[in-house]
Amino acid sequence: MKVKIDQDLCTGDAICVDLCPDVFEMDGDQAKVIVDEVPEEFEDACRDAAESCPEGCIEIIE
Fold first, then answer.
1. Pick from 11, 7, 37: which is nearest to 46 by CA?
2. Phi, psi values for residue 61, rounded to 5°
């Protein structure tokens, strides 16, 4: 699975970083993805992050 963040929509809430710090980190005032492929053990946390994002800027690519 892969994950992307739409930087035009991200407002830097950092909810994704809180929920899945092994996949997301803050880059200034926006979140970024720090892995090419999401390790299987973090897939559920990434889905939680995508569902919890108030801006809906996280895209999950199966």
1. 37
2. -115, 110
| pTM score | 0.94
Mind listing the pLDDT tens digit for each residue in 15-50? 999 999 999 999 999 999 999 999 999 999 999 999
Note the maximum CA span of the chain.
28
CATH architecture for residues 2-61: 2-Layer Sandwich (3.30)
Q: How many CB atoms lie within 10 A of CB 30?
A: 16
| Amino acid letter for position 8 | D
CA distance linking residue 52 with residue 50, whole number of Å: 5
